[in-house]
């Protein structure tokens, strides 16, 4: 026997055995808790659902800067976007956060950007489509287009006979080809696969028709948009001509998440872009940054476009309008109305306060439509509504008038931080406390006050969604009408229905699309000063905008709300499990906790796949199973009742509530602040023709 060979073989076998990993079992995912091993649930923890979100940015009609060459005024360099776009977003509950402690919503995002330059075939077909759907190039030019030609600064006093255009504009607008904005959005959504965009992905289309030989001066319209109650055709107004649109919720079709922005249209009246001469258009003595029409970029004239390049400007629009305000916004209020025991029933408790001789409220408020439109924001909740009408007189008239002080002598609550609104607030609290005495358990009363005044008692505010003044919890919805707001048969104005849907949307969490929060920079901002251009966020399919072109909540609203709800169900389940643990009842709830944990794991999968409604439904099921099990085990789970937790209103005595960070303007500020429902400049735009 060759002992040397045997020894060598044995040594080799030993070495191989030493290199082989031991046969270890794969560890079970999750964390061990009192309820067993859980993967998604974290008892007693405020958790955040983080997801990677792809955002497509598609350029149609723009050309990319060739490698090594400087970018010209109208070329796109994607480095401008890389330098300006956020890497992440962490949503906060805005009004609660303004009371001193930043309150996370529980939704955060890491962005993955995909830049696409549409090929010639796509561009040719797109511009062929818009020409086929548009209305003749010789369509009457709007007052805003004429104001641009003449640089009058005011479309209401422009001289329509202005023969010689202003010397500092780059091109005179000679026509107005009107294009249906919704049809344009749908075409882009239907043809996204041609540029590598999957159906349902968040996508911005930046459009430029100007640099093509078939260019026509044009504007986008939602011409048939009208007030629900009065029929006022807001869509026919020149002030409602658009350069952007998107976010429509398409019936019987997969979700589409498209928003387009076309600087070769109009110029935009909603951001006063027709005025390329004056830097301060809202009169607050601060320069207002806005985007001029595309043909002004690269001008050498004394114009808003002098020295400007379109690429970094579009990157600003992508970040501060599309992403922060439309795609992944922060809510204004908590979606969890009564944490941790969230309601299964919501009653819209409508109080019509009727001035003597004012328009018949039955013509101004459609309660059926109101309920139908808002219920999508709480899809697992049963809605009902009650309505009563009382006279706007006596004590009620007094507290109503206090809400609109015009001089210092009109201050009605000098000892309160909210000197004008406190009396009306206390009036509502008294009524709400009485309502809850006969309200079945588990029903949430959403108090709505519709004031139908017979006099022009205020300057034009349509509504506001109030908070409790101490914790930033939503409290009352107020809607206001006066004769000048209602209008008449010849010149109809506003009714209650659309405003009340809008304000109820706030109450149920949603923000405006023209103001919000940037989490990476920790700034609150609105359409003012350096962020004036974000007012184009209103040019999207949502009743939360101010341009009166939508009656319902759009796809971006629904996505956001269902994400908020998914996180709310997760974190309220975590809170309930902690209550169970402290009560030493974990054994009785372990089975429900395990089942719910599985639901939340499945919900995260749907969430990552952009099926936000499906995610919220699974999260709701998991939440309810744990809540029911906790209650069956005798664990008290108490719903938060803001109207019973008002320290400054104990016995409704005089006192001061917590100080909220409030800004009377929409200018950018560090941290989370509360902005006014409407500024004078926004009202000017909303009431413009």
UniProtKB/TrEMBL annotation:
Superkingdom of the organism of origin: Bacteria
Does this entry carry the keyword Signal?
Answer: yes
The name on file for this protein is Peptidase M43 pregnancy-associated plasma-A domain-containing protein
Signal in keyword set: yes
Molecular function per GO: metallopeptidase activity
The taxonomy runs: Bacteria, Thermotogati, Deinococcota, Deinococci, Deinococcales
Task: Using the record, list the residue span of the signal peptide; answer none if the entry has no such feature.
Answer: 1-25
Keyword terms? Signal
């Amino acid at each position: 026997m060759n002992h040397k060979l045997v020894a060598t073989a044995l040594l080799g076998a030993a070495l191989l055995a030493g290199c082989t990993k031991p046969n270890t079992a794969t560890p079970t995912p999750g964390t061990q808790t009192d309820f067993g091993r859980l993967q998604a649930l974290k008892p007693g923890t405020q958790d955040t659902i983080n997801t990677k979100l792809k955002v497509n940015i598609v350029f149609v009609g723009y050309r990319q800067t060739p490698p090594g060459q400087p970018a010209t005024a109208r070329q796109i360099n994607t480095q401008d976007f890389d330098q300006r776009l956020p890497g992440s977003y962490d949503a906060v509950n805005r009004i609660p956060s303004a009371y001193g402690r930043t309150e996370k919503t529980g939704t955060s995002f890491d962005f993955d950007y995909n830049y696409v330059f549409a090929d010639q075939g796509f561009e040719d077909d797109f511009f062929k489509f818009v020409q086929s759907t548009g209305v003749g190039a010789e369509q009457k030019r709007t007052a805003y287009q004429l104001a641009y030609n003449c640089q009058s600064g005011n479309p209401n006093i422009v001289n329509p006979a202005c023969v010689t255009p202003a010397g500092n504009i780059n091109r005179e607008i000679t026509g107005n080809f009107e294009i249906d904005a919704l049809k344009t959005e749908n075409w882009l959504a239907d043809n996204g696969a041609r540029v590598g965009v999957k159906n349902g992905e968040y996508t911005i289309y930046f459009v430029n028709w100007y640099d093509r030989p078939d260019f026509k001066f044009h504007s986008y319209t939602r011409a048939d948009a009208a007030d629900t109650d009065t029929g006022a055709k807001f869509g026919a107004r020149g002030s409602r001509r658009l350069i952007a649109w998107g976010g429509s919720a398409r019936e019987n079709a997969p979700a589409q998440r498209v928003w387009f922005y076309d600087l070769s249209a109009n110029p935009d009246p909603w951001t006063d872009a027709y005025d390329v001469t004056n830097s301060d258009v809202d009169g607050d003595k601060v320069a207002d940054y806005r985007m001029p029409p595309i043909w002004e970029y690269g001008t050498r004239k004394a114009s808003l476009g002098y020295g400007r390049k379109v690429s970094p400007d579009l990157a600003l629009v992508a970040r501060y309008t599309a992403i922060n305000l439309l795609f992944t916004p922060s809510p204004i209020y908590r979606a969890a109305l009564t944490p941790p025991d969230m309601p299964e029933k919501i009653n819209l408790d409508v109080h019509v306060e009727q001035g003597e001789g004012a328009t018949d409220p039955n013509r101004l408020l459609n309660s059926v439509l109101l309920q139908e439109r808002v219920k999508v924001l709480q899809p697992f909740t049963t809605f009902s509504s009650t309505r009563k009408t009382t006279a706007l007189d006596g004590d009620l008239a007094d507290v109503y008038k206090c809400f609109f002080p015009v001089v210092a002598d009109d201050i009605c609550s000098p000892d309160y931080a909210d000197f004008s609104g406190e009396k009306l607030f206390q009036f509502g609290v008294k009524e709400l406390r009485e309502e809850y005495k006969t309200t079945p358990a588990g029903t949430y009363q959403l108090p709505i006050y519709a004031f139908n005044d017979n006099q022009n008692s205020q300057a034009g505010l349509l509504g506001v969604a109030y908070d409790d003044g101490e914790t930033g919890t939503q409290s009352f919805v107020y809607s206001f009408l006066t004769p000048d707001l209602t209008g008449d048969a010849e010149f109809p104005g506003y009714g209650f229905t659309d405003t009340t849907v809008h304000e109820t949307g706030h109450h149920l969490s949603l923000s405006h699309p023209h103001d919000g929060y940037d989490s990476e920079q920790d700034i609150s901002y609105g359409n003012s000063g350096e962020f004036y251009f974000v007012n184009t966020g209103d040019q999207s399919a949502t009743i939360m905008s101010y341009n009166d072109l939508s009656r319902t909540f759009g796809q971006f609203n629904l996505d956001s709300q269902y994400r908020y709800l998914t996180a709310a169900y997760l974190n309220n389940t975590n809170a309930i499990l902690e209550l169970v643990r402290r009560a030493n009842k974990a054994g009785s709830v372990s089975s429900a906790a395990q089942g719910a944990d599985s639901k939340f794991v499945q919900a995260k999968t749907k969430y990552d796949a952009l099926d936000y409604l499906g995610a919220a439904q699974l999260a709701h099921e998991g939440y309810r199973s744990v809540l029911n099990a906790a209650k069956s085990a005798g664990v008290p789970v108490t719903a938060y009742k803001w109207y019973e937790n008002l320290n400054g209103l104990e016995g409704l005595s005089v006192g001061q509530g917590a100080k909220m960070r409030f800004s009377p303007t929409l200018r950018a500020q560090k941290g989370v602040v509360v902005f006014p429902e409407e500024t004078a400049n926004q009202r000017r735009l909303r009431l413009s023709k």
